[in-house]
Amino acid sequence: MAVEQRRRELVDAAVRVIARDGVAAATTRAIVAEAGMSLASLHYAFPSRDHLLEAVIAEVTAQERRAAEVGLLPLAAGLHAGAATPPRLEDVVAEGLQRYVDLLVERPEREQALFELALYAMRTPGQRAALVAQYAVYQESALATLAAAALAARSRWTVPLDRAARALVMATEGLTTVWLADRDTDAARETARFAAGALAALAEPVPGEPTPVGAAAGTGTAAGTEEDARAH
Fold first, then answer.
1. Which residue in 27, 35, 156, 188 has a CA-CA distance of 20 to 30 Å to 205?
2. Dihedral sign for Cα atoms in the order 56, 58, 61, 63
């Protein structure tokens, strides 16, 4: 087996063990048993258990980013393609968050493993950097998706975009944690809609553009440029 394939299978096995049994139970023996490999195979792919856990955080975080961007960026580009008027920013963000809820319901083990690993990183000396890097990726993804949403809705942010992105990260983290606890998907979707409205309130139409789809006359949004989306 190629080393990269071995690494991927061990990371996937570690995610399953952590989600099911917690980080403490994710021993090297438990992980290789889950993967159907030997201990020698693990040590060939990773120098230590800590290196494996760091790889789990990096890989699952990267999956999250890809899912977020694949979910929202094409959506944002397509919603106003060929339309005389743009969609509302609230609707663009809400649709992206609804897709996030779909992914959460589809792959709860991924989120539960990340939650376990975040607590582990907080408590373990030398591991906090991995946690900081994880949330830096979330912040970058939120920046990209909110910039794309504003372009689609022909709006501009009235606050620094990094602040709006941080609010989005905090909203999705809270939504995720509560859903993992109660598995109330309808409530999660309602929260997503509320969060979309709150975020959209931090933006304004670019003057002189058509009224957005579904909005009252006189409250139009505008296409603008990427600089408009990142304004202020």
1. 188
2. negative
Same domain, 41 and 57: no
User: DSSP string covering 192-226, please?
Assistant: HHHHHHHHHTTEEEPTTSPPPBTPPTT-------H
Residues 106 and 18 in one domain: no
**58 and 97 co-located in one domain:** yes
Contact (Cβ atoms closer than 8 angstroms) between residue 177 and residue 115: yes
What would the pLDDT profile of 156-202 be if each residue is shown by its tens digit?
A: 999 999 999 999 999 999 999 999 999 999 999 999 999 999 999 99
CA–CA gap between residue 30 and residue 82 (Å, rounded): 54
Q: Are residues 54 and 42 in the same domain?
A: no
Q: How far is Cα 146 from Cα 167, in angstroms, rounded to an integer?
A: 11
pLDDT tens-place string over residues 115-169: 888 888 888 887 788 788 888 888 988 998 899 889 888 899 999 999 999 999 9
Q: Which helix (H) or strand (E) holds 147?
A: helix 128-153
**Structure-block tokens of residue 113:** 């493993």
Q: What is the DSSP string of 18-30?
A: HHHH-STT--HHH
31: CB partners within 8 A, 6+ apart: 10, 13, 14, 17, 42, 49, 52
Length of the chain: 232
Boundaries of domain holding 15: 1-46
> Which value, to the nearest 10 degrees, does the dihedral of the CA atoms of residues 108, 113, 118, 120 take?
150
Could you tell me if 68 and 98 are in contact, meaning their C-beta atoms sit under 8 angstroms apart? no
